[in-house]
Write a structure and sequence with these properties.
By secondary structure, this protein is mainly beta. It contains one helix and ten strands; from the N terminus they run αββββββββββ.
Length: 174
């Protein structure tokens, strides 16, 4: 969950920015492996607000047997209070049955501070509190939901190295 600013070119062209990607890998040899994945991110940025929707899927199979399957979705709204300080609220969902997670829902809110806010480099730290509802799979049996409070901390970095190309990296501890 990033909340990074849109590039100058994207801001002037439209308040809506779309990003996406796809992965297809098929290997044939001693074993047949297939990996399919995709991700989509939509940002709507009517200043001082930023609304973000994200979704991703990853599926892998070896010799026709599913070996990995992950789904994620999230929504977030943030609002700049000052040039450096913002607040956010959001929620997300994760399913990764091979890691033992049937459903993990999280809802949280907090504040972020832009440590570096330049035209080429951007670094933002955030902290927040929220609520998590987790349903695990134990020995093949779907367990009841476990509900608990959460604390989050995160960093988001963006390097805008041309008008249309950038590198971003996000770290969140939930």
């Amino acid at each position: 969950d990033r909340g990074l600013p849109l590039s100058g070119a994207a801001r002037t062209a439209s308040a809506l920015v779309r990003q996406g990607g796809a992965l297809v890998s098929v290997d044939v040899g001693n074993t047949d492996t297939t990996t399919l994945g995709g991700a989509l991110e939509l940002n709507y940025n009517p200043k001082p607000w930023l609304f973000t929707l994200k979704g991703a899927v990853l599926r892998a199979a070896t010799d026709g047997i599913t070996t990995a399957e992950t789904y994620t979705a999230s929504a977030r709204a943030s609002r700049d209070l000052t040039e450096r300080l913002d607040v956010f609220v959001g929620g997300g969902w994760l399913r990764n049955r091979f890691s033992g997670i049937q459903n993990l829902w999280n809802f949280d809110g907090g504040a972020g501070f832009k440590l570096v806010n330049g035209p080429a480099h951007f670094l933002r730290a955030e902290a927040g509190v929220g609520y998590t509802s987790e349903q695990d799979i134990v020995l093949g049996i779907i367990a009841p939901y476990d509900n608990y409070a959460n604390v989050r901390a995160g960093l988001g970095y963006k390097w805008q190295f041309t008008k249309t190309a950038s590198f971003t990296n996000d770290f969140t501890y939930l």
